[in-house]
């Protein structure tokens, strides 16, 4: 499934073959929480925006329209009209983000729906069943995302429980993939490394989950309160213990600079709501730095958003027009902003892959990190 093509230092160039197509890595997964990218972006748009993988949210799709509905519609790919790979998260992050609405037990987690207050139970088996109904390409194991910082004793107990949950996830996925009516019997399973900011627990947990021979390994529970430097230190500590022949995914990260630094430390896959969320408020990424298109200086600026970008937005519209759309609260503002930011992120990954192909990634990193972190 995953082929490591070459390395430059710890940075990796690879590809992952799946039943829904090949993912060239490093890659960024565009986040369509409820089977749609917020900002009015369709599955057809995503093809033109160079998206390789879309990420959808198990918890939200379970709440509405219901995973049984999506199963009846033939799975997420048919439901969305998206033919390329889809990764579904497990619902585990909601254990973290809905802290006031949940109770964690060994068998799983009792939720209170954020939509209507309905009581929901989700454990490893339920998460796998929901994701099997969704028929995604890649399913994430059910875990607990621990806050940073967290007490050491609690973190240790939490990762031990997450390991037990992972074994249950694998057993249930094997069962589901063997059923005759399963939409995608080739669904892959990724395990998630946890351990807060404790390097010894992170290493211990990775060593444990590697023994389960999964299809890929994620590092979760980062970018949730710790500094960027702490995050990089955790990645560096864990990376030597992740299998070299399996894909590595850093969950929920991040800025363009975070991605470059993650690749530098051996990460293959990324996802984050940042490009779409920021775009909906007028914060746009360019090859000269980060701009806020709402600023008055763009009132009569006839230049494209980014003269170095060949996305449809930059090829057809001026900064002045984009600013007008945002100031007038036009729906088109969000759509065009999100289109540009996703195109930028996917092009960034293209450039990273090209640099790795040409053995120039270190030079690429030195050049672009200070530019892409700059606010104009």
UniProtKB/TrEMBL annotation:
Gene this chain is encoded by: tgt
Native organism: Youxingia wuxianensis
NCBIfam families: Q_tRNA_tgt (TIGR00430), tgt_general (TIGR00449)
Gene Ontology annotations for the cellular component aspect, listed alphabetically: cytosol
InterPro entries: ArchSynthase1/Queuine_TRR (IPR050076), TGT (IPR004803), TGT-like_sf (IPR036511), tRNA_ribo_trans-like (IPR002616)
Amino acids binding substrate: 89-93, 143, 194, 221
An example Gene Ontology biological process: tRNA queuosine(34) biosynthetic process
Protein's name in the database: Queuine tRNA-ribosyltransferase
Subunit structure: Homodimer. Within each dimer, one monomer is responsible for RNA recognition and catalysis, while the other monomer binds to the replacement base PreQ1.
Catalytic activity entry: 7-aminomethyl-7-carbaguanine + guanosine(34) in tRNA = 7-aminomethyl-7-carbaguanosine(34) in tRNA + guanine
Enzyme Commission number, as recorded: 2.4.2.29
Residues passing through the membrane, by range: none
């Amino acid at each position: 499934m995953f082929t490591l093509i070459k390395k430059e230092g710890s940075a990796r160039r690879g590809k992952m073959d799946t039943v829904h197509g090949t993912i060239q890595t490093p890659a960024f997964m565009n986040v369509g929480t409820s089977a749609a990218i917020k900002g009015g972006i369709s599955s057809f748009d995503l093809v033109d925006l160079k998206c390789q993988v879309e990420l959808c949210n198990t918890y939200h799709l379970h709440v509405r329209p219901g995973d049984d509905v999506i199963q009846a519609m033939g799975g997420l790919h048919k439901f969305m009209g998206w033919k390329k790979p889809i990764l579904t998260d497990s619902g585990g992050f909601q254990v973290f983000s809905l802290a006031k609405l949940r109770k964690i037990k060994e068998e799983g987690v009792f939720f209170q729906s954020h939509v209507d207050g309905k009581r929901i139970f989700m454990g490893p088996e339920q998460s796998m069943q929901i994701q099997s109904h969704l028929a995604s390409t890649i399913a994430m194991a059910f875990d607990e995302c621990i806050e940073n910082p967290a007490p050491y004793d609690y973190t240790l107990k939490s990762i031990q429980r997450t390991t037990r949950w992972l074994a249950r996830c694998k057993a249930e996925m094997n069962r589901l993939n063997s059923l005759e009516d399963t939409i995608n019997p080739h669904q892959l399973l990724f395990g998630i490394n946890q351990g807060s900011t404790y390097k010894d627990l992170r290493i211990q947990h990775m060593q444990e989950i590697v023994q389960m021979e999964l299809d890929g390994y994620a590092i979760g529970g980062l970018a949730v309160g710790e500094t960027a430097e702490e995050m990089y230190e955790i990645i560096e500590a864990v990376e030597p213990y992740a299998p070299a022949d399996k894909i590595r995914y850093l969950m929920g990260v991040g800025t363009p600079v975070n991605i470059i630094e993650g690749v530098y430390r051996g990460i293959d896959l990324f996802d984050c709501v940042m490009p779409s969320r920021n775009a909906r408020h007028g914060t746009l990424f360019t090859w000269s730095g980060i701009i806020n298109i709402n600023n008055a200086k763009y009132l009569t600026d006839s230049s494209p958003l980014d003269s170095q970008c060949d996305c449809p937005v930059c090829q057809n519209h001026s900064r002045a027009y984009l600013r007008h759309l945002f100031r007038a609260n036009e729906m088109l503002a969000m759509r065009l902003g999100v289109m540009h930011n996703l195109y930028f992120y996917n092009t960034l990954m293209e450039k990273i892959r090209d640099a790795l192909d040409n053995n120039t990634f270190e030079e690429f990193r030195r050049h672009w990190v200070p530019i892409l972190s700059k606010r104009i």
